[in-house]
Amino acid sequence: MDQALLDAQHIVQIAAEIGVRVKQVEATAQLLDEGATVPFISRYRKEVTGTLDEVQVATIRDRLVQLRELDKRRASILKSISEQEKLTPELEEKINAVQTLSALEDLYLPYKPKRKTRASMAKEKGLEPLALQILEQGRMDLEKVAKQFIDEEKGVKTLEEALAGARDIIAEHINEHAETRAQLRQVFEKEGRILARLISGKEEEGEKYRDYFEWEEPLIEAPSHRVLALRRAEKEGILLLDLQPNEERAITLLEDNFVHSNTKSSDQVQMAVKDAYKRLLKPSMETEIRMLSKQRADEEAISIFAENLRQLLLSAPLGQKNTLALDPGFRTGCKLVVLDKQGKLVYNDTIYPNEPQKDTVKAGSIVLALCEKYNIEAIAIGNGTASRETERFIKAIPSLPKSIQVVVVSESGASIYSASDVAREEFADYDLTVRGAVSIGRRLMDPLAELVKLDPKSIGVGQYQHDVDQKQLKNSLDDTVMSCVNAVGVEVNTASKELLSYVSGLGASLAKNIVTFRNENGAFKSRAQLKKVPRLGDKAFEQAAGFLRIRDAKNLLDASAVHPESYPIVEKMAKDLNTTVEELIKNEELRKQINLKNYVTDTVGLPTLEDIVSELAKPGRDPREQFETFSFVEGVEKMEDLKVGMKLSGIVTNITDFGAFIDVGVHQDGLAHISQLSDKFINHPTEAVKVHQKVEATVMDVDLGRKRISLSLKSEPFGADSDGKRGGTSNTLSEARSQRPQRVATRKPITKVEKEAISEMGKDRKNDSKFSRGSSLEEDDTNQPKERKTKKTSYKKAESFVKRQQKSKEEEAPKTGGTMADKLAALRNKFGK
User: Domain range spanning residue 164?
Assistant: First the structure.
């Protein structure tokens, strides 16, 4: 099929899936094919796309990739069958119609080159005609007919051997029947149950999986974290996993499809049905559905990881302040560094305020002297070993100016950074401890700028991150970092090459060229000067310029998110008001006089104009929240200090499907189960909390032996509604099912593996080293530019084709609880986008 028609079909299909107009998807696809990035399209091409947001643009991009990959496989299959001279018009139409890989492979299965099978050997013995006669299930003398196929030279010595061979051929036919496979797939997926059994002798080794030694539940209800935990236990040789469908239902389905009479031939077909199911279909379906469940679990876990990462990256920055940072320790002391407002290292030392030296007098005098000499405005303390002790020491220093903010900062990933090539390149003459302390201080000043230097997987906000598809994980996390960096904007004259590499249109090579040019020629004085950077051409400039800031530029717009292509519009606005761009930025009353409709053109509409005026009000504004100082409860520094009922200040460090991990300052994160996160019923922890959120938690239980802390964020954690109820909403299976179809229905107690198998969560701090639908294109010509010229493609044929396939597509596709639009809406609601 012509690729242009295929693309047209894909565009129609995607538009239907995400609930937007075909023209919106068409325009977005063209921009993507031209090399535009997701942040650029969603921010600076709103008129072209009909104001699609980042999630929608990214979904279009990803679906196009998926569907085009499917096209490649389709073409390969068509070529293979054609070379076998078995491609009929009917088969070709079917192959061109299917829209899922599983359905495509089902159609290809009978023609797929295969090793010798029982059926192929039976065919070599000349038993295929017998199989076909039996399959017709007409009235005949079966024994008489079958005896005609006895041939000792071919290896058919008896009547039973002839019938057995024929059954093998029929069984393979049943296994390769595409419609039947699609139906059976639904049975396995919708009605299958996942069973876990302990491997004999593995009780002690698999202690953390004890809750799953005899485990069974509907696969469709198993949450992502449990699916991944069970698979991990299987991989470790602790558990045996099995997927059991409703076998009676499965056999009945096969008999309904293939047993059509009550004859001796039918008896043979029935025997073939059972053999096909047990020997061929069941193993195949189990493997396929297990893989599908893994893919879905991966998607959920990666989604949670990406959102946790987004929240962490967009944490409130302290800003440009002279900072003293401490990497705490006991015997080896506390590594101390001083950073200027730009995060440059200006001094380093080691002090010993803690055991065993406990030289608080000398350490205190050093800190005071440094605070005075370098006009220190904030002190950052890593939250690892000796964190609370060091915090207590700092706050107890006599005469320490109260204006200095003392903040405990997460060290997660700091040790990985300190040993990285990035750190070695910047601090070649300093050891790992100095680099780690610098990272702690910079993380306080600007979390985003510092964390982009780390592999996102090392930050520690993922759920079973090592068990999920690593390529998919990397792509998702890279998208998240890129989204955050471009949402905030980057100061080109101070940014590291790592930060610049995530700017739309740049990448690692151009980022390095920018830094090299800056070092050799001094600070950039304008955005236009970026065009002088080697290999930074017009396309890269178009994609990147709007996200780069030059704060001291002569043109004030260079410090804003107004794209250079829109400068003439701003200049005309100022000219029409007889003022300057500078005055337009300063004077709100002048901006109120702007009539945006006067500036609508063929390429610029109200969405862009509204963005421009909004940006003029606060040029280069930071979308992140304002920084607020946080302190843990004094006197509570270790698990032994905890008492049931205590109210503690804490910070959410991680979010999973089953709850949130919270740092309460005792070197061990506590867990607030989803049932303890809110007074009302919630479907997911992200509805109640977010990473790095400051919370007030109540201690529910403390297990010193297993280092477990149970917390609650409910207003009355020990109240009447805490016993199996949340806000009057029962947690019974039936009620939860009605509220959360195809999700985990019950609020089952948190299992050991859910607590222990996530190595990146609930860390022992002592050992911690360190998409609403997009609006359619406006119809009001006065408010909206004319539609962008796109490739001349008629979508009528594509739309007709897609509509014809909807029914068959729905039958072949697993029912996962809603359309793509529903899923996108749920995603936005879930994460507050």
Answer: 114-172
